[in-house]
Design goal:
The protein has helices spanning 22-36, 52-59, 65-84, 136-149, 200-204, 252-258, 264-296, 305-325, 330-336, 341-369, 375-389, 393-399, 402-420; strands at 2-8, 13-20, 93-99, 105-112, 126-132, 152-155, 165-174, 177-190, 212-218, 232-246, 423-429. Helices cover 46% and strands 21% of the residues. It is built from 13 helices and eleven strands. Strands 6, 7, 8, 9 and 10 form a five-stranded antiparallel β-sheet that branches. The protein has a four-stranded antiparallel β-sheet with strand order 1-2-4-3. Helix 4 packs across helix 7. By secondary structure, the protein is of the alpha+beta class.
Amino acid sequence: MSLTSVNKLENNTVELLVQVSEEQFQDALMKAYKKKVKTIALPGFRKGKAPKAMIEKMYGKEFFYDDAINMVYPAAYESAVEEAGIEPVDRANVSDLKVEQGNGFSFKATVTVKPDVTVKNYKGIKAEKTVETIMAADVNAELERMRERNSRLTNVERAAKNGDTALIDFEGFKDGVAFEGGKGENFPLNLGSGQFIPGFEEQVAGHEAGEEFEVNVTFPEQYQAEELAGKAATFKVKLHEVKTKELPAADDEFAKDVSEYDTLDELKASIRKGMEEQNEKNAELEVENDLVEQIVATLEGDIPPVMFESRIDEMVRDFEYRLQQQGLRLEDYIKYMGGDTAKFREGFKEQAEKQVKIRLALEAVAAAEGIAASEEDFENEVKRIADAYKMEVEKVRGIVPEAEVKKDLAVNKAIDFIKQNADVTVENVAPQKDEKAE
């Protein structure tokens, strides 16, 4: 393969003229023949045994061209891209494909490439780091959440009230006819949670286990099922059990049960330390985001729209994957949300554009400062991935694309460079009111 010419066109497009040698083409033609001959039968020859020359004489010398070209093209194109030193952001448009007898074939590939962008004033950026002080009330609030997570439900012989869990059977009727999706058995309804239609939970409260009663409600005007939106309905309800939540006492025994500590004071100290560390991380992340946003604001360059669309595609695929993990299909989700695919994609547009601009801005900083990832950086990242996914290092090294990983690492280094050269003031902020610790 040889790169004959590289022409830069408008709108970040580049035209490559590529020549594939006769030797490479003939080799590909032979491979195409060996692959295809198994399905070909010619008079006088057993199926799969017809000579290449006879097949070409019967069907034309171009018979194997398409298969041969498809075999050679990917490597030829990638080699041309590497030699040209460009970074495509979209699939190439191939044209002017010419097979020349005794001289292989040539083609023209026109492709959109990553734009040249610049950023300004990325050193000495001013930012404020605000770290919220952890107060006794914050520690106690987290302790309460731990008690909630370790609570248990116990049956009570009284009328249900807000905060209780009511185990119910229910069936909904509109105009006396049961409607689809309006029935459930042994459903644990947390009263006051807002799980059900407005007014439903309030009418369950006040009843005791064993009672059967009716609940009258009106569906919201914007309800997802159009046939029920704004309509009155009656639910027949049977209350099986009323359960209340019991929280464990906040004492040394609780600390031993839920942690490695022997006393409640030690547990509280650990909670405070963890919250302080998290607040520090949050403050650092806010500073980082502020600095990056200031740099992105100075970004100059013509960004191809296809880069935004490609990022949206990636975000949609990621969303679809997460839906599949829950046993759902993207098509069903979009239909449930109104069936507008274009509107669904539009929801990712703003974030996609922001992410593309951030990446380009940080790559520009890395390029300007000569920031790159070393082999040691790459090996450390491979080990980190292997540890995270409990895989062998060699297996990870064979899977992850080294060039792409190094680009990501260089971008992370660019962020570190920006932070190290920023003018950051630190302010510790305490809540206006502190509640006394227990």
